[in-house]
Amino acid sequence: MANPLVTLRSATQSDIPVIKAIHSYYVLNTLITLAIVPSTDDELLSKYKSITSQGLPYIVAVDASANSAIGYAYVTGFRGFKGGYKHTVELSLFCHPEWRGQGVGTLLLKKILEVLKEPGTHPEYIVNPGSDDLRVRIVIACISVDEAGRDNALDLKQYYQKFGFELVGHLKKVGYKFDQWYTALGFTSPLLLTCQGSIPTIYSWPSGEGF
Ligand SMILES: CC(C)(COP(=O)(O)OP(=O)(O)OC[C@H]1O[C@@H](n2cnc3c(N)ncnc32)[C@H](O)[C@@H]1OP(=O)(O)O)[C@@H](O)C(=O)NCCC(=O)NCCS
Q1: Ligand 1, atom 31: closest residue by C-alpha
Q2: Sign of CA dihedral 70, 161, 153, 89
């Protein structure tokens, strides 16, 4: 349920230390990210600058009572936004561990999809507006399957599906952390932008269930 004390805004450089603390928690304690070493302030700052300079949103949820970030969502160009991938981004979405299950992730996810769909109507979330030629058409979310985690991470699958994401791929045992191999699941968002040109059906996907 949405918490009335939580607001959203565009991230600023001063949020980096809190973002680092949130991300480090998941790096050090979970399989949600397969990063092994927490990012440094400089790495996070450089990523922040790269994202915002590309006209992409980097959003924080703020606990208004403490005026501190408690979650964040951003997207990065899939495969470096190169060539034919320039309309596809990959999502990162993290809530402070003590703020999970209180509607913060939902607020962030809804907002970032809204902003990506209609960037022109959300100038407060786009630091450097890009050209129309760089509009985002599809968002990829990738999760690793922690068989010891909540419902084998299938709750996250349902979570993304609630927002219209579709499970489109299993990358079996591609990740290694805490002495085990992990499978990654890939989801794609509904189309945020209708482009001209047909999308060929290369082959039919299997049902995609199970891993
Ligand atoms: C996944 C995440 C962003 C969801 O945000 P949230 O604020 O905790 O979730 P909300 O309160 O908005 O929504 C709760 C729903 O999320 C589902 N959910 C999925 N995974 C969850 C988790 N690990 N913790 C809490 N809720 C989770 C719940 O089932 C719940 O569904 P319901 O509303 O039908 O009961 C957040 O829990 C989080 O940061 N988790 C760790 C990082 C992560 O998994 N990021 C996504 C993959 S990169």
Answers
A1: 159
A2: negative
Ligand 1 atom nearest to 100, measured from its CA: 8
Dist. CA 127 → ligand 1 center (Å): 27
Q: What is the pLDDT of residues 6-58, one digit of tens each?
A: 999 999 999 999 999 999 999 999 989 999 999 999 999 999 999 999 999 99
Model confidence pLDDT, tens digit, residues 121-143:
999 999 888 777 778 999 999 99
Whole-Å CA distances, 24 to 16, 31, 47, 97: 12, 12, 15, 11
How many angstroms separate the CA atoms of 185 and 178, rounded? Answer: 19
Chain centroid offset of residue 172 CA: 21
Which atom belonging to ligand 1 lies closest to the Cα atom of 101? 11
> DSSP secondary structure string, the chain?
---TTEEEEE--GGGHHHHHHHHHHHHHH-SSS---SPPPHHHHHHHHHHHHHTT--EEEEEETTTTEEEEEEEEEEGGGG-GGGTTEEEEEEEE-GGGTTTTHHHHHHHHHHHHHH-GGG-GGG-SS---GGG---EEEEEEE--TTSGGGGHHHHHHHHHTT-EEEEEEEEEEEETTEEEEEEEEEPPPSSPPSS-----S--------
Prediction pTM value: 0.90
Both structure tokens of 21: 């603390």
